[in-house]
Design a protein that fits this description.
By secondary structure, the protein is an all-alpha fold. It is built from two helices and no strands.
Amino acid sequence: MPSIPRYQVCHATIELVSRSQDPPWGAGEPAAAVIPSVISHGVFDAIGVRLRTVPFTPKRVKAAR
């Protein structure tokens, strides 16, 4: 499988913010909500198959073709 050229790779910056006046809350939930759609779009761009249900298994990829 060919590697992805550097100019096509998305870069992310993670910043930790200290908010001592606020109670602790989950930091992963907002990001976790968009991950399946990002992967689905990547699969569609790569092989032209739309996956709309997680988990994305080989069986579901074959069924979507």
